[in-house]
Design goal:
The structure holds 2 protein chains of 2 kinds. By secondary structure, chain A is mainly beta. Chain A is 0% helix and 54% strand. Classes of the chains: A mainly beta, B mainly beta.
Chain lengths: 110, 117
């Protein structure tokens, strides 16, 4: 697995591209998953969620895919914009406790 | 709706002093509030969970005597960092949930940056 360290995985894309951010979660009993966006110096902002009885959910410009077989979650952002630049965290919910993933920094170039 | 505020947004204090951070749910009643800590370029780590009117439940490795949590009303929780030291410098974030135990969505505050000199 990844080391926590001081370096976040980074995804660099051009404006207008589609972005895919991946997350591996740890507990197969987790029943609810959320993607958050965090801009520098701010708290996490809810993007989209999905329950474990679903494998796909779409929002406005965002789609979350859940693969329970391999404990994998992905966030797809369509037509990425500079304002999407931030750190993205997945979180899994188990027994009302959220456990956050390590985060991915998305950098969008104009 | 579902706005959570924190105060102060940043604080600088001397080593050995205590600092209180407030977390308020502005437009809903928060039966459960959570406190997280985040170091630079790292993820959020849950420190404790507090239900209104009950003692907080602390995560393993978090000193309850150092991080005092009070959740005396349905709209306010406070985190007091006692005898702060430079290693306590971090970004502290609260979240609030309408349901007891936090089974409902958690709404996050904007965070408080604590710097201990």
């Amino acid at each position: 697995g990844e080391s926590v360290g001081l370096h976040l995985p980074t995804l660099s894309v051009q404006e207008g591209d589609n972005s895919i951010i991946n997350c591996a979660y740890s507990n197969s009993a987790s029943d609810y998953f959320i993607w958050y966006k965090q801009e520098s110096g701010k708290g996490p902002q809810f993007i989209i969620d999905i329950r474990s009885n679903m494998d796909k959910r779409q929002g406005q410009r965002v789609t979350v895919l859940l693969n329970k077989t391999v404990k994998h979650l992905s966030l797809q952002i369509a037509a990425t914009q500079p304002g999407d630049s931030a750190v993205y965290f997945c979180a899994e919910n188990l027994s009302s406790t959220l456990t956050f993933g390590k985060g991915t920094m998305l950098l969008v170039s104009p | 709706g579902a706005v959570v505020s924190q105060h102060p947004s940043w604080v600088i204090c001397k080593s050995g002093t205590s600092v209180k951070i407030e977390c308020r749910s502005l437009d809903f009643q928060a039966t459960t509030m959570f406190w997280y800590r985040q170091f630079p370029k790292q993820s959020l780590m849950l420190m404790a969970t507090s239900n209104e009117g009950s003692k907080a439940t602390y995560e393993q490795g978090v000193e309850k005597d150092k991080f005092l949590i009070n959740h005396a009303s349905l709209t306010l929780s406070t985190l007091t960092v006692t005898s702060a030291h430079p290693e306590d410098s971090s970004f502290y974030i609260c979240s609030a949930s309408r349901s007891r135990g936090g089974t409902d969505t958690q709404y996050f505050g904007p965070g408080t940056r604590l710097t201990v000199l």
